[in-house]
Amino acid sequence: MARELQVTFDCLDPGRLAAFWAEALGYVVQPPPPPFGSWDEALDAWGVPADQRNSRSAIVDPDGDGPRVFFQRVPETKAVKNRVHLDVRVAPGLAGDDRMAALEAERRRLEGLGATFAYRVEPDGRLETGFITMLDPEGHEFCLD
Question: Per-residue pLDDT for 80 more than 90?
């Protein structure tokens, strides 16, 4: 039996990172459970103190197909390169100049949202199709593929 998958980010500012990744992936911030109309309403009802309200956040695929992405506040900053990273597939089916142009367009969009460019790998006409490595607003590596 296949299992449901959730991707979890340790971070300093769950709300900010959730907003970034929602835009990057075309996701939405997970809505509060019924009968609450907002997260503030739910957190008020549950008695969550103000200093704990940004301790976690989540985003979901509005079509229900992709995995839930969860963000949890941790006290330490990111210190080393990720051993696992996300590849954001923005150019499936494209090759060569068309592929790299699509990746560059997405690079510029994500930089406007707070991402940072790391490096670009060119297609080699053999195995390498080309990609761009970036950092999210807290320094987590990800690739535009």
Answer: no
